[in-house]
Design goal:
Helix content: over 70%
Structural class: mainly alpha
Largest sheet: none
Shape: elongated
Number of strands: 0
Order of helices and strands: HHHHHH
Number of domains: 1
Oligomer: single chain
Number of helices: 6
Strand content: under 5%
Distance between the termini: 41 Å
Radius of gyration: 20 Å
Length: about 130
Amino acid sequence: MSDRQDRRRERFGDAALEAEYETGQRESTPGRAKHNIVLRIVLITVGTIITLAGLAALVLPGPGIVLILIGLGILAQEVSWAERLLAYAKRKAKIDKVKTQPTWVRVLIWIFTILGIGAGVAFAVSAMSD
């Protein structure tokens, strides 16, 4: 690598550490702050992948709405736009109405949700093995 790239990488790292310190959360040492930066990147990456898989599952077989809600829930921990979008998606998915249903209805919803996720995963695994 060139000296210019090294300086750019160092400036990027310093800026990331400064941004982490500005949040005022979770960091007590520089090592802990670096760990939190990595954790944030992982959470954003995983949330994005799950949300995109949910969007794909809207037109492909699979539990699209559930995956979108899970992905947005992960993203909402780190980015504010995902938190707003999650609130909108919950309203559209009528999550609050599910909470007011009798217990037996909620149990059935969970069973079908788990079966849907399992079917989506089984489909994906079988498609990958073909």
